[in-house]
Design goal:
alpha/beta; 8-stranded parallel barrel; binds L-Erythrulose; binds manganese (II) ion
Length: 271
């Protein structure tokens, strides 16, 4: 398994669970110094990545890009793939397509988290899932032309009412024709929603494409009460070789959260 740490470049996401903020140059320098394999970037838009020349910057530190988030489409522009308004749904797809194009230079999968939206407001669950499936399939096809995967992230009940658990999301992904959409298993959301985190990971098996490495209180692993032993045993059992990416609150500050996440990564991957 490989280590990653999150960097948000989205001021509107302030208060969110990202370790480093606002400055990709400084975030990458800290990540490299602490020994991370990769960074996970949450950009404001596709252009942000081009402007800062992310590929060159990461390369200069020997860092990989673990994933690129698309949630700015929601927090910045209120775009959602399941919005009742067809124009907004189209713009949402366009926003993610551009992120996919930019992620191609970084050879990184693109996350669909908060862009999934929710059902309600006159939209039935069935209709929302049809739109979500259609959008994910089209975006996965686009990602495939660049050799990339999509990561679909089930969120907890306070953030979406589409899929909250890995098992139901896995069944939905299997029903789509795309082979390059994997699950992003966020241990914080899972702690709220799953009866048994290890069992859920085991059941998802090869569909597990990425892990957000966060404790029960969304702080760095080790600072909450999630029992990590069975989770790591399950990840080993399914031969998960992807990232454990620290998507946690910058508490007590960014550097302390990054250090603790790295210590926990070592603790749990070298035993
Ligand atoms: C949001 O709660 C989250 O976990 C992010 O990864 C979604 O983009
Ligand atoms: Mn997450």
């Amino acid at each position: 398994m490989k280590s990653a740490v999150t960097i948000s470049l989205v001021p509107e996401a302030r208060g969110g669970p990202f370790v480093f903020w606002d400055d990709l140059v400084a975030g990458c320098a800290h990540a490299a110094e602490l020994g991370y394999d990769a960074v996970e970037i949450f950009p404001s838009s596709a252009e942000t990545l081009a402007v800062v020349n992310a590929a060159r910057l990461l390369g200069s530190h020997g860092l990989q890009c673990a994933a690129v988030g698309s949630g700015a489409g929601w927090v910045k522009h209120q775009l959602r793939l399941t919005d009742p308004d067809a124009g907004i749904r189209r713009r949402a797809v366009g926003f993610v397509r551009e992120i996919i194009d930019a992620a191609g230079d970084l050879n990184a999968p693109v996350i669909i988290g908060s862009m999934q939206g929710r059902w309600g407001d006159g939209v039935t669950r069935e209709q929302a899932l049809d739109w979500l499936g259609e959008a994910l399939s089209g975006l996965a096809e686009h990602a495939e032309t660049r050799g990339l995967a999509l990561l679909y992230e089930p969120l907890n009940r306070y953030e979406t009412n589409l899929f909250n658990r890995q098992g139901e999301a896995a069944a939905f992904l299997r029903s789509l024709r795309s082979q390059n959409i994997k699950l992003l298993c966020d241990l914080f959301h899972m702690n709220l929603e799953e009866a048994n985190l290890a069992a859920a990971l085991r059941a998802a098996g090869p569909l597990v494409g990425h892990v957000h490495f966060a404790d029960s209180n969304r702080q760095a692993i080790g600072w909450g009460h999630t029992d990590m032993g069975p989770i790591l045993a399950a990840l080993r059992e399914i031969q998960y070789a992807g990232y454990l990416s620290a998507e946690v609150l910058p508490l007590p500050d960014s550097l302390a959260a990054a250090r603790q996440s790295m210590e926990s990564f070592h603790r749990w991957t070298t035993t």
